[in-house]
Amino acid sequence: MVDPLVEFYIVDSWGSWRPPGGTSKGTITVDGGTYNIYETTRVNQPSIKGIATFKQYWSVRTSKRTSGTISVSQHFNAWQSKGMQMGKMNEVSLTVEGYQSSGSAIVTSNTLTIGAGGGTDPTPPSTGTKKECESMTKGGQYTSNISSSFSGVALYANNDSVKYTQYFESGTHNFSLRGASNNSNMARVDLKIGGQTKGTFYFGGSNPAVYTLNNVSHGTGIKRLSLL
Questions:
Q1: Total number of domains constituting the chain
Q2: Is the pTM of this model over 0.90?
Q3: Which of the following is catalytic: 7, 91, 132, 169?
Q4: Which residues constitute the domain of residue 148?
Q5: Residue 51's beta-bridge partner residues?
Q6: Of 3, 40, 87, 115, which is the most buried if we count CB atoms within 10 A?
Q7: Which of 97, 132, 134, 169 is catalytic?
Q8: Structural domain contains residue 125
Q9: How far is the C-alpha of 104 from the C-alpha of 85, rounded, in Å?
Q10: What is the pLDDT of residues 124-164, one digit of tens each?
């Protein structure tokens, strides 16, 4: 990542040494396992911008596995919730490294899904309450309706937003948002409920896709929902 410069790792298996050492900042449970979260600093080391000092973000699985899905965006959300600042995406890769270890790996399948929150369906779920962003209250200088590459609302600047009021009988729901980025950079949309940030939707391409935040706890009663 760049702006800020960050190197990140999601580690599903390791050899005799479990990286990166140090004290965990917390955990995330995702894709059927638990990961410890770490933040380390590299001082005057090689990077995509040359020799630099930069942060490294880590999610390291507590039990090894050699196959399965890695929901990268959910790790991004967890890191951000720990105060680990996220930048613009530069590269994502599947790698096998032999630091303080030795061995090999045979990769038979590697599928990368961008923007769909771990799924491949470009359309929102058909169940539950559906609210079109065009009908929400718009805020900010540049918020406007769009019709290409899909019908919706464009949020251009940091103060752009759409809001609406919803009554919740139960206190936990899943929230899905269909969106896209207008360039090669990672686009993000924060979900706020009752003035509190509950998660972030990430969209990494110009093709519309659905990102879902699962099991969001928000309380009951009338709540103001904001996308910004």
A1: 2
A2: no
A3: 7
A4: 133-227
A5: 46
A6: 115
A7: 97
A8: no
A9: 33
A10: 555 567 888 888 899 998 898 888 767 889 888 778 999 99
Residue 33 lies in a domain: yes
Q: Which residue has the tokens 């718009």?
A: 138
Whose CA is closest to 133, among 74, 176, 167, 195?
176
Query: pLDDT tens, 176-228?
Result: 888 888 776 778 888 999 999 988 888 776 777 788 888 888 888 888 999 99
* 39 tagged catalytic: no
Range 212-215 contact pairs with CB under 8 angstroms and sequence separation of 24 or more: 212/117, 212/118, 212/119, 212/125, 212/174, 212/175, 212/176, 213/77, 213/117, 213/174, 213/175, 213/176, 214/174, 215/172, 215/174
Question: Same domain for 95 and 1?
Answer: yes
Query: What 3-state class would DSSP assign to 135?
Result: helix
- Give dist(CA 90, CA 32) in Å, integer: 27
SS3 sequence, 72-113?
HHHHHHHHHHCCCCCCECCCCCCCCCCCCCCCCCCCCCCCCC
Top pLDDT among 39 and 180 is at: 39
169 is catalytic: no
